[in-house]
Each structure stands twice: as C-alpha cells, then as structure tokens.
Specification:
alpha/beta, Rossmann fold, 8-stranded mixed sheet, 7-stranded parallel sheet, 22 helices, globular, Epimerase_deHydtase
Length: 680
C-alpha cells in the first residue's frame, strides 16, 4: 500500500472516495467542482491513480482486501463514500471498524443498489409495492439473501450503534455513462446488449418486470445533496439511514429490449430489429421505490424523462459496440493502423447554445476531441476549470473576429465536423452592418470558405433561427398553415438599414441578419459544391438550463435566458414573450450533433419547435411548483396561451428518433437554476 497522505490544513472537510468507476468517477468531478472538500481516492490501479493525481487529488493505492488500510483511511477522513462494492462483506467490516475507532464522529455513505428490493427475493410483497425510504421498518424486513442486503445490514447495525452518520444510499438502475477521464458504462443494460449480440436478437422476460432508474449525474447530485444536508442539519440519519436515489419515471425491460434492437439494426449489426421473450424475469424481477427523503431536501432529477432513458440506452449500446470494434471509433487515415482523432470544431462555445453543443459532443460515446473557437484564453480556462474531466479532449483556437478568413484556416485543420454556433445577438446598435449583418453573414461564409480547403471535413452544421423562416413584417395568423422548414423569410439588407435603433428595431435587425446568413450559407454550397455536407438548425425561442462554463450569477445569463429572466423573475409584472414557440437548449444541441453525424442528412434546415410558450404560463408553472420563490415571480392576469401562428418541428423528431423536452420540464429546469443564482 502507498499513500500520498491524508489530512488537511485548509479547513475543508476531508473525503475518502473508494472507487472511481461509473458512479465514483462521475462523483469525483462533482465533488471537485464544489471546492469545499479535500478529496482522497482509494483505488488499486496505477493508471487510475495517476490520472487522479493529475487532478490534484490525493491517492491511496489499495484494494478492498486491504482491511487495515480501509480501517485506517476511514479513521483519517471526515467523510467516506464507498462506491466500489455493495457486496464485499469483509471490506464492509473493515470500514465499520474504522467508524468504531473514530467514536461516532465520522460520516459514511454506503452506495447499495435497488436489487435489494427485487420481488424475486421478497415475494411476500404485492407486485405494485413501492419501497418508501421514509418507512425504514419496511426496508429492514427485506430478505437477507437479496442482493447487497447483508452488507446493508452491517451498516444498518452500525447506524443503530451510533458509530457515525451512516447513510445507506440505494440507487436504482444507473444509466448514462460517467463523464470524462473515467468514462464508463453501467452493468445491466450492457449485459442486455451483450446477450443480443450473442443471440442475434434482443430479449426480455415474459413477465416484463417494472423497474426504476437514475441517471449517473443525478445520482452524483443526490450524494452532494445528502452531504450538504447532513452538514447543515436538515437531514438526520440517526434512526433511518436509508435514502433511495431514483427518478420519477418507471420503465420495463421490453422497452430496453426494443431500443437495443432498434440501435443494433441502425448500426447494421442486426439484419432486422428482432425482439423476443426469453425466460420469465429480468435480473431481480420487479423493483420499485420512491425517493421521498431527497425530494424533501429539495433534490430533483435533471434527467427524468422517458427520452433521457432512451438516450442512455443508445449511449450504452454504442459504447459496447465501440469497445468490441463493431463500429469504427475514428475515420482511418491513409495508414489504417493509425486511427485519426475525431476532432469537432465548435464556434461560440462560451455561449448558451455553443456550450451545450460542445458538451453534447464531449459526452458522446465516440469520445470526440472538441476544439473550442473562443475570443480569449480566459474563456478556455473557464472551460477547463468548470469541466476538468474533459481537459484531455479539449483544444483551443483564438478567434478575435468572425469575419477574418485567415483565422479559420488554422481553426479547421484536421477537423472532421464543424458546428458553427457563433453569431451576434439582438441588441441596440448604431451600425447594423458592422455589428450584426457582417459578423453573421461574412462570419458564416468565411468558415465555409476555410472548410472547403480542408479535406478532413465531412459535415458542417450552423445555428440558424426560426427567424430565417418567419417574416416578422408579415406574420401568419393562427388559422393559416403552420411554418415549415421550406418557408423562407425574404427580408433584405435595405429593410434592416431602415429599422429604428430602439424598440422592436434590434430584434428585427437580428432576424434579418440570421435570414441573410442562412441564405448566404446555402448559396455558397450551391455555387461551390464542397466535399462536405451542410445542414442548418433553426430553433424557436430557446429555454432550459445553461451549462455555460462561466455561469456564476444572473448577469452571466445569455440570449433568451436573460430575456426570460428580465420578463418573469424579479419583476412586478410578467412581460409577454416575443416568439410564441419554444425549444429546449438540450434539444437544440442534440440536433446539431445528429445533423453532422448522420451521413444521410444533407441540405436540411431543421426547424425546431417543441410547443407553444408564453411567459405568463411560465410564471404560473414556476409559482405553483416553487412556492418558496413565489415572491420573486412577476404577477400576471393574462391568458396562459394566446392564439398564434403554427410551427411544424416534427421532421427533426422523426429523423433523429427523439421526443422534444416538454414545456413544463424545460421551464422548471430553467427556473430552478436561475432562482438559485446570485444577482452579482
């Protein structure tokens, strides 16, 4: 055993994290991001420990069989989180001995698993039984032979003996893939994929058991919530150590099987998307639980929709296929034995949409390297501070001016895909040509010119706008045909120059700048016939939470997020929304990525319209869901949803096989984030 040392001189609480696999690896970065803990990782792999030390984290080289080390390290840290094993009895005894020697002063989180609730091990429960973590007596009656239960019983007894603040966290089926340096996949879904590859079809048990699940990032956020609530006294585990970590969705293994078959067929692995029943039950049978205690503390899931779970299945299918070499990770160079890095150039990566697009590429199973086109090194350093897990796959290119063709020559070198998001926003200006039209139009043309001279590029996608399809000078009414992606805004430069510099003028000028940039991009392709594909993404009013790296306060909100804040929150009366249709920023990022990755997609202008929106309805949703913040939400007597023109955003859903994030989830996720931000 070797150790780089424990203890702290900073006054921070010390955390021992055992295991940095799927859950532990993701949790490590979330702990680091808080900045309030001094962390030590215990693991047995030299390669893993080397990576951890590169993050400035202390390490201990040991395995779960090193009982003396486990005991010593538990006694040496304020908090221990065991993310390595839910079934190792001897390791559990060694860690509990550390708690005993510490005299009840430590915090310990044992990460168990919802297999303990499987009805195959607890047949006395009805099929619709839901385990509530506010009812510890029900959990205490679980069969000792259920998965993880004997280890849980040891920690339950330690809790009863007052050996510390002991938490038995019980996550359900974890999915999603952990981030960055410790990128990993789960257990159950990959097992299903492996079986489908072996059998030539996907399968599920004939009884089609119901089960719960949780995204790995929501699991990490739950652990952070537990730690914070133990620290501030809002959570007591003295008489009840159990905390379920699940989202509000339920699924069945038939859903998993059909999605696996669909993805294997898509990748050409199966000739047909065949699904069959096999056996009676999958894994532990039915297991269902609720997370009452976390919700009472204010935790909520960010990845709680059925679509999120389907995305997680897709990620894990592709990850398994990549590991097995069944689909190529990179495009071969002329030397087939030396694969090329998959590099994606993302412009505007400091912004709201640009950062979402860049992160969507980074989180992809294909492990893209993302080159961020930014105005300064300070913006790149903000990225590496906020997302250290991606530092080995981030590159920086400085772009001072969007209109300088020379800048883009180096930016596109060796790049496979380009996502051009950067464009000036709607704001008052004395010079519409200089500040809006030229950066939007010439900035787009300049990057396309550079891309034409770079043979490695296969596809370009750029961020257009609904405003390239809708003529704001001549809007349709609610009884007119809906706008579709083939509709065009025919506004001109002359109209932009004639606009007033205040009032509606800046928005109309912005609309014309997006229109003319869109027109110029497709004209360029028609005239030059480049070797790469071009597609455009035209979102409506963008909503949802931000992941921009420099988001520290309200003043950092960008674009329509800032507009929504100024219209809904910390105002006396709610203002009306300019565009009555919305798209969540996460769906905008999704379509950018899919539009370059799918080789069949070319020459498309995807109009993204998830549904109707109004700030009045947004205010009512937030006030009802977040009563503790009602005094910050503006007053409105207006109708929830006034009549408006129609939009057809279905083609993107159909082509890329997803469902738009609904309005209520989008605005709640946005509202929770914004209401938690300081004003300065």
């Amino acid at each position: 055993m070797t150790s780089t040392g424990t203890g702290t001189s900073t006054g921070k609480q010390t955390v021992l994290l055992i295991g940095v696999g799927l859950m532990g690896g993701d949790l490590l970065f979330k702990l680091l991001k808080t900045g309030i803990y001094e962390i030590t990782v215990l693991a047995r792999s030299d390669d893993t420990l080397s990576v951890v030390r590169g993050l400035g984290v202390k390490t201990v080289k040991a395995s779960l069989q090193d009982a003396e080390v486990l005991t010593k390290e538990v006694t040496s840290h304020d908090i221990t989180i065991n993310a390595a094993s839910a079934d190792d009895l001897e390791a559990a005894k060694a860690m509990i001995e550390g708690l005993r020697q510490s005299g009840g002063t430590k915090t310990f989180i044992q990460i168990s698993g919802a297999g303990v609730y499987g009805h195959l091990f607890n047949p006395n429960r009805p099929a619709d039984f839901v385990y509530d973590d506010n009812l510890p007596d029900e959990i205490d009656q679980l069969d000792p032979d259920a998965p993880h239960r004997r280890v849980d019983m040891l920690f339950r007894e330690a809790s009863k003996q007052g050996l510390g603040k002991v938490v038995i966290a019980i996550p359900s089926t974890v999915y999603g893939g952990s981030e960055g340096l410790f990128k990993g996949i789960s257990i159950q879904i990959p097992m299903k994929v492996e079986a489908a590859l072996k059998d030539g079809y996907a399968s599920y048990g004939s009884n089609d058991g119901r089960f719960t699940h949780i995204h790995v990032e929501d699991h990490s956020r739950a652990i952070l919530q537990i730690l914070a609530s133990l620290s501030n006294g809002k959570l007591s585990v003295k008489t009840n150590p159990y905390i379920n970590i699940v989202n509000s969705q339920r699924s069945k293994w038939s859903v998993v099987a059909h999605r696996i078959a669909k993805q294997l067929y898509k990748h050409g692995i199966l000739a047909e998307p065949i699904v069959r029943t096999q056996g009676e039950w999958d894994f532990y049978g039915i297991y269902d639980s609720s997370t009452s205690r976390l919700r009472e503390l204010g935790w909520y899931e960010r990845f709680g929709s059925a679509q999120d779970f389907l995305d997680g299945i897709d990620f894990e299918v592709e990850s398994v296929l990549l590991q097995k070499g069944l689909i190529p990770k990179s495009k071969p160079t002329p030397t087939p034995t030396q694969p090329r890095k998959d590099v994606v150039l993302v412009t505007g990566a400091s912004g709201w949409i640009g950062s979402a697009v860049a992160l969507r590429f980074l989180r992809h199973a294909r492990a893209f390297t993302v080159r961020l086109a930014l105005r300064s090194i300070d913006q790149f350093e903000a990225w590496t501070r906020e997302y250290p897990q991606w530092k080995d796959r981030l590159e920086f290119v400085e772009v001072k001016s969007l209109t300088d063709p020379e800048v883009w020559k180096d930016a596109v070198k060796g790049v496979r895909y380009v996502a051009h998001v950067a464009s000036p926003g709607a704001k008052p200006t004395e010079d519409v040509v200089r500040d809006l039209l030229e950066p939007a139009i010439q900035g787009t043309v300049s990057i396309l010119q550079a891309a034409t001279k770079e043979p490695s590029i296969e596809a370009v996608v750029f961020t257009s706008s609904i405003l390239a399809h809708v003529d704001l000078f001549n809007l349709r009414g609610p009884d007119d045909p809906p706008y579709v992606e083939t509709d065009r805004n025919m506004s001109t430069v002359e109209q932009a120059l004639a606009l007033p510099k205040t009032g509606a003028g800046p928005l109309l000028a912005y609309a014309i700048s997006k229109t003319l940039a869109d027109r110029a991009a497709f004209k360029f392709v028609a005239e030059h016939k480049p070797h790469w594909r071009l597609n455009a993404v035209s979102p409506c009013w963008v909503t949802g939470p931000s992941e921009q790296p420099d988001l520290a306060s309200i003043k950092d909100l960008r674009s329509t997020s800032q507009n929504a804040y100024q219209s809904i929150i910390d105002v006396d009366n709610v203002k009306s929304c300019t565009v009555p249709w919305f798209t969540d920023v996460r769906d905008v990022a999704r379509v950018h990525v899919e539009a370059v990755l799918d080789p069949k997609i070319s020459g498309r202008r995807y109009l993204l319209a998830a549904g109707r929106t109004s700030y009045e309805q947004a205010a009512n949703i937030l006030r009802k869901a977040l009563p503790e913040s009602a005094d910050r939400i503006g007053h409105t007597d207006a109708a929830d949803m006034p009549p408006a023109y129609g939009m057809d955003g279905k083609p993107a859903e159909n082509d890329f096989d997803f469902e738009y994030i609904p309005w209520e989830k989008s605005i709640l996720d946005w509202g929770r984030q914004v209401l938690a931000l300081p004003s300065e």
